[in-house]
Every structure is written in C-alpha cells, then in structure tokens.
Amino acid sequence: MTQKSVSGTDLTQVGVIGLGIMGAGIVEVFSAQGFQVVGIAESKLAVDQGKQYLTTSLTRALAKQKLTQLEVDQIQARVTWSEDFSELADCDLIIEAAPESLALKQTIFKQIDEVAKPSAVLATNTSSLSVTEIASATNRPSQVLGFHFFNPAPIQKFVELVATPLTTPEVISDALNVGRKLNKYVAQVADQPGFIVNKLLLVYLNHAVQILDLKKATILDIDSAMRELAGYPMGPLELADLIGLDTCVEILKTIYSDSGNHLHKPAAGLTDLLAGGHKGRKTGSGFYNYSPKPEIPTSPNTALKNEIYLELETAYLGNAIEMEASGYASKADIDNGMKLGCGLPAGPFERIEVIGINEVRDRQAKLAQTSGHSEYAPLPL
Ligand SMILES: NC(=O)c1ccc[n+]([C@@H]2O[C@H](COP(=O)([O-])OP(=O)(O)OC[C@H]3O[C@@H](n4cnc5c(N)ncnc54)[C@H](O)[C@@H]3O)[C@@H](O)[C@H]2O)c1
C-alpha cells in the first residue's frame, strides 16, 4: 500500500503526547513555526500543567521581547489540548514525550498506533531507550523514529533524528525536512544508546563523579575547573543535579550495558546519592543543597583545577574522536550537538583544532598511564 508522504510541505498537524517540560516545549516549537498542534496527556491535571508550562515559557519570551503579544496569541491559538488519544486521528506526525520507561512508551505507542491514520509517522523523544524496541509495539515500525529535542526545546537548536534499521528512507527524509522547518540543526544517527550528545555528555559527567569518588578533588574544585578553565556554562556536578541524578543513572546504565566499558558504569557517588533519595534539583538536593539555591564560589586550588580540567577534557575529546572514527557521527554533527544541544562554547573537534591533534594524543597517552585505565589511550594510528 502506498503511504502518503509526510513531507514538510504536506505536514500541517502534529500531535505531542506527554506535556511535561519536554512535551510542552515541543508543542511550543511546532506551534511557533505555524503547525497545528494537539497536546495530549493522561489526565486533566497533566494537561493543565502542560498548558501552564507553555504559558510560562511564552510569558518569558514576551518579557524578553523575543515574541510579540500577537505571536504569543497565535502560538496559543494553534494548540488544542486533550486527554483523549482519539484526538490524534488527523495528525501527520505524533511525538511522544512521556517519562523515560520502555514499558510505558510501548503501551503509549500501541495506543497511538490504534488511533493514528495509516500514513502518520510516530516519533519518540527518548533520551536513552531503544527506538527499535519502542517501534516494535506498533504495526508500523517502518514509520517510527526518534526525534530527540534538547531542554529547553524552544531554545536549544539541535535535534537528533534517530533512524532504526526498519525506518524507511522516505520517512527519514520527511522527518529531516520537518526538522529543518523548525530552524534546528538536525543530525541523523543510528539507534545506539545515548545517541551523540548524551553518550559524550553522560560519560563526561560520570568521569567527574569518579574523580570525586577517588577523593582527588572536591565538588567545588571540579565544577570551578570546568566553568573557569573550559568555559562551560556549568560544572559537571551542577549539571548532573540539573539533569536529575535518576536520569543520569538511567542513561549511563543503558550506555554501559551496550559498551561494557567499566568507565561507563554509573559511579558510586551517583548511585549512593540516588539511593538516599537525592535526585538533584528536582528533590532539593544532590551534589548541592538547593534550599535555597546555592551561590557556587570558586575553588582557590589553581594547580588542582588545571589537572582536573586536563583530565576531563582529554577523556571527553578522546571519546569524541572514537565516536567519529567508528562512523557513528560526523565531526560537524558532534561539534554542533555539543554546542547547540549542551551550550558548550566549542565543539570537541574545534577544541582539537586549537590544541593540535598530536598534543591531544600525548595527553591521552599520559592520562592512560597516570590513571591506569588503558581505555583513555589514543586510537592506534
Ligand atoms: N528533561 C530533559 O532534560 C530531557 C531532554 C531530552 C529528552 N528528554 C526525554 O523526554 C521525555 C519526557 O521527559 P520530561 O523531562 O519532559 O518528563 P516529565 O516527567 O516532565 O513529563 C512527562 C509527561 O508525560 C505525561 N505522562 C505520563 N504518563 C502518561 C501517559 N500514560 N500518557 C500520556 N502522557 C503521560 C506526564 O503527565 C507529563 O506530562 C523522556 O523520554 C525524557 O528522557 C528529557
């Protein structure tokens, strides 16, 4: 049977399921570009929360003069809200942004598959789960892919488009067109744990916790090092608190189960905090205590900070080199992912350009030697 193509030009109606921080942001992204959007969640309470997220975001954009009152009104007018999945029947593209649970996502995909029209493309915003396994819950796995936005979705300009072995080239090409219509940089990747950005980011965050676990440095030393010397907007431990330590551990578990690399196993410092109910900002405590939100001072240990910065950056650059060498992603996609998805000031390959590849390889060899972990060694020439 020939399916009507869901091309950027044909596509007018988009459904979004799950209206939390990501779902509500995705509603805004599509509506702001002129798409009609149906926002769905499981209860009236959850729908109301989604509406509130959208209103708060639009009010902020209005205050910052990024949108006019007319644009705000138009964005809101293009969205309809419901708890009833059958409202998705006319949607050309349906994006799921429910909590990160395979069982839940499979249940939701089964429900969507039953109500969506035959030509509709179904997408998941999963950060770490197998898109292939999610697609297997439907009768149309060839029309399922990952559409991974970054937080906050209206602001971050990067999207990972995850194709499974079953996604057809037409569906991929149509989804790429849609992504471009959103004024985002779209990187097409295969279905592997963590995709580009979370694989590199979470392994880096885990490394920072491993340094803490070894008592080589304090929380303050580590975060100050990366903010001040690498110029990152946040230190790795503040960032882990922001992402949520539960989310960090879940993503790392998926990455570790695939790679088997012991450096990817969630660090004890993460799992211990989590076991104590400390999930980061969302529970008021993690590596930091958020009642009230702390002013993070600088660490005076200049030499130690330099050491930490070199260790973390070297390992991260090595992982980027390995990812590109494996053929998983191009240098441009990796650089853009880390800049536009995470807000880093430069991509890893731009950094390698500045430092010089020979110097990076020397640093990798030294790190492998001093840490005793051969995984940090440079790739053979
Ligand atoms: N938070 C992030 O920084 C981030 C970034 C990128 C991707 N993601 C991914 O996006 C997805 C959503 O994350 P989030 O942070 O927005 O979660 P969230 O918990 O803020 O929101 C989840 C939403 O799904 C709704 N929901 C729960 N059960 C449902 C059901 N059965 N049917 C319909 N809706 C249901 C909830 O009411 C809520 O509106 C996850 O897969 C997550 O991994 C999150």
Descriptive notes:
This protein is α/β, with parallel strands linked by helices and 381 residues long. It is 50% helix and 10% strand. It is built from 15 helices and eight strands. An eight-stranded mixed sheet has the order 3-2-1-4-5-6-7-8, sandwiched between helices. The chain binds nicotinamide-adenine-dinucleotide.
**Which structural class best describes the helix and strand composition?**
alpha/beta
What integer is the average pLDDT?
94
End-to-end gap: 50 Å
How many separate helices?
15
Q: Looking across the biggest beta sheet, what order are the strands in? A: 3-2-1-4-5-6-7-8
Helical residue percent band: 40-55%
Q: Give Rg in angstroms.
A: 21 Å
List cofactors, ions and other ligands. Answer: nicotinamide-adenine-dinucleotide
Along the chain, the helix and strand elements come as EHEHHEEHEHEEHEHHHHHHHHH
C-alpha geometry: globular
How much of the sequence lies in strands comes to 5-15%
* Biggest pleated-sheet summary: 8 strands, mixed
Total strands: the figure is 8
Low-confidence runs = none
Task: Quickly describe the structure.
The chain has 381 residues and is α/β, with parallel strands linked by helices.
Helices and strands, with pairings:
Blueprint: E1 13-17, H1 21-32, E2 36-40, H2 44-63, H3 69-77, E3 79-82, E4 93-96, H4 102-115, E5 121-124, H5 131-135, E6 144-149, E7 158-163, H6 169-181, E8 185-190, H7 197-213, H8 219-229, H9 236-243, H10 245-259, H11 268-275, H12 302-325, H13 331-341, H14 348-355, H15 357-371
Parallel strand pairs: 1-2, 1-4, 2-3, 4-5, 5-6, 7-8
Antiparallel strand pairs: 6-7
Helix pairs in contact: 1-2, 7-9, 7-10, 7-12, 8-12, 9-10, 10-11, 12-14, 12-15
This protein binds nicotinamide-adenine-dinucleotide.
